[in-house]
Each structure stands twice: as structure tokens, then as C-alpha cells.
Amino acid sequence: MNFEQMEYIVNVANEMSISKAAEKLFISTSGMSQSITQLENELGIKIFNRSKQGVTPTFEGKIVISKAMSLLNTIKELNTEILEHKNSNQTHLKILNAPCFTFILQETMVKFNSENKDITFELIEQNPTEIMQNFNKENYDFALIPASLEEVKKEKNIRFEHIHTGHICIAVGKKSPFYHLDYVTLSELKDSKLLMYNSSDYKKVLKLTKLNLNQVLVRSNSSSLIYKQVKESQAILFLHDFSIKKSLMVMNGDVKIIPIKEEKHFPVDFWLIYLETKNLTKVAKEFMDAFLDNF
């Protein structure tokens, strides 16, 4: 008897149907049936009585199923203990994030590390589309992403928690004609020069503002270069409302964050996502608590 066969007979007993159990485990009905028959031949007993009314365990089958359930529970408990041990001794966090989270993440990492000196970090920045494509492929502790509820619901094997609902704004420097405004309209932005961060997704913004890529003054992966251009030129940078609100350049007035009047067009939900099979580790939970306090 192998692990798969134990899973099969326990699920068939619970569902009282081979087809329902097969559907639940995402395998073919014939494959499950053949595996159970093979196990019955191996043990020299009949585990299930099959009829048009359904599937019921035989007397001998009930004994085998009971033992299989016990073994599966033991294996589950063992895996949980191993995971908890790993989590309690974790000293490295691997985080996948959209660019809008980078500033707050870096700020949180510095504060968190001052109290947890053994913790190291690996921060990987990607645009939202890449995050959704790559999250299941690598061993990330969690990801932070802007997305709609429908988009995160489509992804398999993940859990998600809502962090924030925000809006897209513009960042400008003192040379910008918009600097002294409390808000801007889409029509006012139509002739503006743009600054673009390569890892950000501007499709929705460009569509609604009717701006085009010919208006891009600088496009770069260097945040320091982008923000220097914001401060020293008249170009505008689209960004999320919280991205750099605590930064020194905003606090001292070198850069101003200005909301777009038609903000109803730009609502954005932000999410924490992590693997269903892994959950958040103890260290990851503590870091996220610190991040949300900082947020």
C-alpha cells in the first residue's frame, strides 16, 4: 500500500463514490479505480462493494480504511511539525513585490532588522503580470501586488489578504506647472512629458489619459534616476497614493503627490498573497505586522 492508494480509499469512503473522489483529487475515475483494484489484489481482500447505488466499504475494507486514515493523519502531523520547526528557525525572507511597495518595504526592513539582526532579506521587484506568472514557480515567502479581486481569485494554490484600496496619483517637482495644485484633471495632463518605471504597468493609465509613449522623457529601472527627474524637470510620474508618501523628498516638499480628480477611474486594490501549502511563516507574519504598521 502506498501513500496515493491510502488517499484514494479514504476519499472514496468519505464521498461514497469513486467518481466524486477522483474529481476531488483531480485524477481520472478509471485511474483511481484501477489503483484501488490493484491494492485489493495485493492485500487479497475486497475493500469496497460497488453497485449502482454507490460504493460502500466491506468489513475488511473498514479496517484497512481506518488504518489508512490513521497513517495519513500521522504523516500530516509529522509534516506540520517539520514545517513549524523550519518556520521557528527561519532567518531569511524572500519577498516578491510590485514597485509601488519598494520604498515602504525597504523602510520596514531597516526597522525590522534593527530588532531582528539574524534575519536576512531577498527582495525581487516585478510588474504585477510577472508576479502572477512567477509566484508559484519560486520559493517565495509572500508577494505584494496591486490587482483586482477577480485577478487574485483566478490564481490557483494561493491565499490572499486585502491590504489597501488606493488610487493612482501623479508625482511632480517644483518646476512642474501642477506643483501648486491640490488636484489635476485628466485633460490637464494630456500634453505632459512622462517618466516611467520599467517594472510598472501603465496600460490602464495611458488608455484613460490618452497619453502615448512618444511623450516619455525617461524610462528606467532606476528609482533614484526617476525621482531625480521628477524633482528637476517638469515631467510627471504616475504612481500609487502611498508609494513614497513617507519619503524625505515628499516630506521636505521637493516632490509633491497630487491626486487625479477623476480618481473613480483609478481605484486599485493591494494584496498580500502566499502559497496555500506553505502559509505565512512565523517570521513572515511578524514582518508583515511591522510592514502594515509602517504602511
Please write the CATH class name of the largest domain: Alpha Beta
Count of DSSP strands? 11
**Count of separate DSSP helical elements:** 11
Which whole number gives the mean pLDDT?
87
Elements, N to C (H/E): HHHEEHEHEHEHEEHEHEHEEH
Our measurement of the CA-to-CA distance between the termini, rounded to an integer number of angstroms, reads: 52 Å
How many domain units?
3
The biggest sheet amounts to: 9 strands, mixed
Care to describe what's here?
Keywords: DNA-binding, Transcription, Transcription regulation. GO terms for molecular function: DNA binding; DNA-binding transcription factor activity. Pfam families: HTH_1 (PF00126), LysR_substrate (PF03466). This protein folds into 3 domains: 3-87, Arc Repressor Mutant, subunit A (Orthogonal Bundle); 92-163 and 274-294, 3-Layer(aba) Sandwich (D-Maltodextrin-Binding Protein, domain 2); 165-268, D-Maltodextrin-Binding Protein, domain 2 (3-Layer(aba) Sandwich), CATH 3.40.190. Strands 3, 4, 5, 6, 7, 8, 9, 10 and 11 form a 9-stranded mixed sheet that branches. Strands 1-2 form a two-stranded antiparallel ribbon. It is 43% helix and 23% strand. Strand 7 (194-197), helix 8 and strand 8 form a beta-alpha-beta unit. The relative contact order is 0.14. The chain is built from 11 helices and 11 strands. The chain is of the alpha/beta class and 295 residues long.
